[in-house]
Specification:
Blueprint lengths: L22 E4 L5 H11 L10 E6 L12 H10 L2 E7 L3 H9 L3 E2 L13 H13 L5 E6 L8 E4 L2 E5 L8 E4 L3 E7 L2 E4 L9 E6 L3 E4 L2 E4 L13 E6 L2 E6 L1
Parallel strand pairs: 1-2, 2-3, 3-4, 5-7, 6-8, 7-9, 8-10, 9-11, 10-12
Antiparallel strand pairs: 11-14, 12-13, 14-15
Helix pairs in contact: 1-2
Length: 246
Amino acid sequence: MAVETTSTARPSFDLKSAQLPVVAVALRDTDVRVLVADLAQRLADDPDFFDNDPVLIDLAHVREAGQEIDFAVLVEALRQHRTLPVAVRGGNAAQMAAARAVGLTAAPEAAPVRHAAPEIHEIVREVEVVREVPAPLADALIVDKPLRSGQRVYARGTDLVVLAMVSYGAEVIADGNIHVYAPLRGRAIAGARGHTGARIFSTCMEPQLLSIAGIYRTIETDLPADVAAKPAKVRLDGEKIIIEPV
Protein backbone atom coordinates (compact mmCIF):
# COMPACT_ATOMS: atom_id res chain seq x y z
CA MET A 1 0.00 0.00 0.00
CA ALA A 2 1.38 3.36 -0.98
CA VAL A 3 1.76 5.88 1.82
CA GLU A 4 1.92 9.59 1.12
CA THR A 5 4.50 11.53 3.11
CA THR A 6 5.18 15.23 3.40
CA SER A 7 8.89 16.03 3.16
CA THR A 8 10.21 18.20 5.97
CA ALA A 9 13.84 18.05 4.86
CA ARG A 10 15.69 21.31 5.06
CA PRO A 11 17.08 22.84 1.84
CA SER A 12 20.72 22.10 1.16
CA PHE A 13 21.67 25.80 1.05
CA ASP A 14 20.49 29.34 1.76
CA LEU A 15 21.05 32.46 -0.30
CA LYS A 16 22.00 35.51 1.75
CA SER A 17 23.67 38.82 1.04
CA ALA A 18 27.18 39.18 2.45
CA GLN A 19 29.26 42.28 3.12
CA LEU A 20 32.95 41.53 3.56
CA PRO A 21 35.91 43.88 4.02
CA VAL A 22 37.91 44.20 0.79
CA VAL A 23 41.30 45.80 0.24
CA ALA A 24 41.16 48.33 -2.60
CA VAL A 25 44.34 48.77 -4.65
CA ALA A 26 44.03 52.09 -6.50
CA LEU A 27 46.42 52.21 -9.45
CA ARG A 28 48.13 55.52 -10.19
CA ASP A 29 50.40 54.19 -12.93
CA THR A 30 49.70 51.81 -15.84
CA ASP A 31 53.26 50.43 -15.79
CA VAL A 32 52.78 47.19 -13.86
CA ARG A 33 56.54 46.79 -13.45
CA VAL A 34 56.55 49.90 -11.26
CA LEU A 35 53.72 48.51 -9.14
CA VAL A 36 55.45 45.15 -8.71
CA ALA A 37 58.64 46.87 -7.56
CA ASP A 38 56.74 49.17 -5.17
CA LEU A 39 54.84 46.23 -3.66
CA ALA A 40 58.04 44.29 -3.09
CA GLN A 41 59.70 47.29 -1.45
CA ARG A 42 56.75 48.16 0.79
CA LEU A 43 56.20 44.60 2.00
CA ALA A 44 59.86 43.57 2.27
CA ASP A 45 59.86 43.94 6.05
CA ASP A 46 56.44 42.34 6.50
CA PRO A 47 55.87 39.49 4.01
CA ASP A 48 52.87 38.26 6.04
CA PHE A 49 51.13 41.64 6.00
CA PHE A 50 48.22 40.21 3.96
CA ASP A 51 46.43 36.99 4.83
CA ASN A 52 44.61 35.96 1.66
CA ASP A 53 42.63 39.23 1.75
CA PRO A 54 40.25 39.79 -1.19
CA VAL A 55 41.40 42.67 -3.41
CA LEU A 56 39.51 45.09 -5.64
CA ILE A 57 41.62 46.87 -8.28
CA ASP A 58 40.50 50.49 -8.72
CA LEU A 59 41.34 52.09 -12.08
CA ALA A 60 39.66 55.47 -11.57
CA HIS A 61 42.97 57.35 -11.57
CA VAL A 62 44.27 55.73 -14.79
CA ARG A 63 41.10 55.35 -16.87
CA GLU A 64 42.23 58.12 -19.25
CA ALA A 65 45.70 56.61 -19.76
CA GLY A 66 46.58 55.47 -23.24
CA GLN A 67 48.93 52.65 -22.20
CA GLU A 68 47.58 49.16 -21.72
CA ILE A 69 47.68 47.46 -18.31
CA ASP A 70 49.13 43.95 -18.10
CA PHE A 71 46.48 42.51 -15.80
CA ALA A 72 47.94 38.99 -15.93
CA VAL A 73 51.22 40.21 -14.41
CA LEU A 74 49.38 42.48 -11.96
CA VAL A 75 47.12 39.68 -10.68
CA GLU A 76 50.06 37.30 -10.29
CA ALA A 77 52.07 39.91 -8.36
CA LEU A 78 49.17 40.51 -5.97
CA ARG A 79 48.72 36.77 -5.44
CA GLN A 80 52.40 36.39 -4.58
CA HIS A 81 51.82 38.79 -1.68
CA ARG A 82 49.01 36.60 -0.27
CA THR A 83 46.05 38.52 -1.65
CA LEU A 84 43.12 37.30 -3.77
CA PRO A 85 42.35 39.68 -6.66
CA VAL A 86 38.64 39.25 -7.38
CA ALA A 87 37.26 42.41 -8.97
CA VAL A 88 38.02 45.61 -10.86
CA ARG A 89 36.23 48.92 -11.24
CA GLY A 90 36.61 52.44 -12.58
CA GLY A 91 38.38 51.64 -15.85
CA ASN A 92 37.48 52.50 -19.42
CA ALA A 93 35.87 49.93 -21.72
CA ALA A 94 39.19 48.51 -22.99
CA GLN A 95 40.66 48.25 -19.49
CA MET A 96 37.58 46.54 -18.09
CA ALA A 97 37.53 44.07 -20.98
CA ALA A 98 41.20 43.24 -20.45
CA ALA A 99 40.58 42.75 -16.71
CA ARG A 100 37.63 40.44 -17.32
CA ALA A 101 39.78 38.42 -19.72
CA VAL A 102 42.00 37.34 -16.81
CA GLY A 103 39.06 36.41 -14.60
CA LEU A 104 38.36 39.61 -12.68
CA THR A 105 34.74 40.62 -12.04
CA ALA A 106 33.45 44.10 -12.80
CA ALA A 107 32.48 45.79 -9.51
CA PRO A 108 30.13 48.78 -9.14
CA GLU A 109 31.67 52.17 -9.77
CA ALA A 110 33.02 54.02 -6.74
CA ALA A 111 31.49 57.32 -5.75
CA PRO A 112 33.17 60.12 -7.73
CA VAL A 113 36.04 61.90 -6.01
CA ARG A 114 34.89 65.37 -5.01
CA HIS A 115 37.25 68.25 -5.62
CA ALA A 116 37.16 71.41 -3.54
CA ALA A 117 34.48 73.75 -4.82
CA PRO A 118 35.46 77.35 -5.57
CA GLU A 119 32.83 78.75 -3.18
CA ILE A 120 32.89 78.11 0.55
CA HIS A 121 29.14 77.53 0.87
CA GLU A 122 29.44 74.50 -1.44
CA ILE A 123 31.91 72.88 0.95
CA VAL A 124 29.64 73.57 3.92
CA ARG A 125 26.70 71.83 2.28
CA GLU A 126 28.86 68.79 1.49
CA VAL A 127 29.95 68.45 5.10
CA GLU A 128 26.34 68.63 6.29
CA VAL A 129 25.33 65.81 3.96
CA VAL A 130 28.18 63.58 5.12
CA ARG A 131 27.11 64.01 8.74
CA GLU A 132 23.56 62.94 7.97
CA VAL A 133 24.41 59.74 6.06
CA PRO A 134 25.65 57.33 8.80
CA ALA A 135 22.82 55.34 10.39
CA PRO A 136 22.62 54.98 14.18
CA LEU A 137 24.91 52.21 15.38
CA ALA A 138 23.92 49.35 17.66
CA ASP A 139 25.48 48.70 21.06
CA ALA A 140 29.26 48.27 20.88
CA LEU A 141 30.90 44.87 20.56
CA ILE A 142 33.24 44.35 23.54
CA VAL A 143 36.26 42.04 23.45
CA ASP A 144 38.00 41.43 26.78
CA LYS A 145 40.67 38.94 25.70
CA PRO A 146 43.99 39.59 23.92
CA LEU A 147 43.96 39.13 20.15
CA ARG A 148 46.89 37.11 18.85
CA SER A 149 48.51 37.21 15.41
CA GLY A 150 46.13 35.85 12.78
CA GLN A 151 42.95 36.57 14.76
CA ARG A 152 40.31 38.92 13.36
CA VAL A 153 37.28 40.58 14.96
CA TYR A 154 34.60 42.45 12.98
CA ALA A 155 31.98 44.61 14.71
CA ARG A 156 29.25 44.76 12.07
CA GLY A 157 27.06 47.85 12.27
CA THR A 158 28.54 49.07 15.54
CA ASP A 159 31.61 50.22 17.46
CA LEU A 160 34.31 47.84 18.68
CA VAL A 161 35.81 48.08 22.17
CA VAL A 162 38.88 45.97 22.97
CA LEU A 163 40.01 45.78 26.59
CA ALA A 164 43.21 43.82 25.94
CA MET A 165 46.21 43.98 23.61
CA VAL A 166 45.82 43.68 19.84
CA SER A 167 49.01 41.86 18.88
CA TYR A 168 51.06 42.35 15.74
CA GLY A 169 49.34 40.43 12.93
CA ALA A 170 45.87 40.61 14.52
CA GLU A 171 43.08 42.64 12.90
CA VAL A 172 40.18 44.63 14.39
CA ILE A 173 37.43 45.90 12.08
CA ALA A 174 34.32 47.96 12.84
CA ASP A 175 31.64 49.76 10.86
CA GLY A 176 31.84 52.43 13.57
CA ASN A 177 34.65 53.51 15.89
CA ILE A 178 37.40 51.35 17.38
CA HIS A 179 38.52 51.76 21.00
CA VAL A 180 41.55 49.78 22.21
CA TYR A 181 42.28 50.25 25.93
CA ALA A 182 45.63 48.50 25.62
CA PRO A 183 48.53 48.41 23.12
CA LEU A 184 47.30 48.47 19.51
CA ARG A 185 50.00 46.72 17.49
CA GLY A 186 48.02 45.03 14.73
CA ARG A 187 45.70 46.35 12.03
CA ALA A 188 42.73 48.60 12.85
CA ILE A 189 40.03 49.29 10.23
CA ALA A 190 37.24 51.67 11.29
CA GLY A 191 34.28 52.89 9.21
CA ALA A 192 34.48 49.66 7.19
CA ARG A 193 31.28 50.48 5.26
CA GLY A 194 32.42 53.98 4.34
CA HIS A 195 31.66 55.95 7.53
CA THR A 196 34.17 58.80 7.13
CA GLY A 197 33.45 60.15 10.61
CA ALA A 198 34.69 56.99 12.33
CA ARG A 199 37.64 57.22 14.73
CA ILE A 200 40.29 54.91 16.16
CA PHE A 201 41.45 55.33 19.77
CA SER A 202 44.15 53.53 21.73
CA THR A 203 45.88 54.04 25.07
CA CYS A 204 49.11 52.80 23.44
CA MET A 205 49.29 53.56 19.71
CA GLU A 206 51.72 51.16 17.97
CA PRO A 207 49.72 50.02 14.91
CA GLN A 208 50.79 47.97 11.93
CA LEU A 209 48.09 49.53 9.74
CA LEU A 210 45.32 52.10 10.18
CA SER A 211 42.28 52.57 7.96
CA ILE A 212 39.14 54.70 8.03
CA ALA A 213 36.44 54.41 5.34
CA GLY A 214 38.81 52.63 2.95
CA ILE A 215 41.71 55.08 3.31
CA TYR A 216 44.75 53.13 4.45
CA ARG A 217 48.01 54.08 6.10
CA THR A 218 50.70 51.52 6.80
CA ILE A 219 53.15 52.39 9.57
CA GLU A 220 56.47 51.86 7.81
CA THR A 221 58.44 54.34 9.90
CA ASP A 222 58.35 55.26 13.58
CA LEU A 223 55.41 57.39 14.66
CA PRO A 224 56.08 60.90 16.01
CA ALA A 225 57.21 60.95 19.63
CA ASP A 226 53.99 62.59 20.84
CA VAL A 227 51.84 59.62 19.71
CA ALA A 228 54.16 56.58 19.52
CA ALA A 229 53.24 54.08 22.27
CA LYS A 230 51.06 56.78 23.88
CA PRO A 231 47.33 57.53 24.07
CA ALA A 232 46.27 58.75 20.64
CA LYS A 233 43.33 59.07 18.27
CA VAL A 234 43.04 58.60 14.52
CA ARG A 235 40.69 60.48 12.20
CA LEU A 236 40.20 61.10 8.50
CA ASP A 237 40.91 64.49 6.92
CA GLY A 238 39.82 64.27 3.29
CA GLU A 239 41.88 61.37 1.97
CA LYS A 240 44.56 61.60 4.66
CA ILE A 241 44.89 59.65 7.91
CA ILE A 242 45.65 61.96 10.87
CA ILE A 243 47.12 60.62 14.14
CA GLU A 244 46.89 62.96 17.13
CA PRO A 245 47.67 62.71 20.86
CA VAL A 246 44.73 62.41 23.22
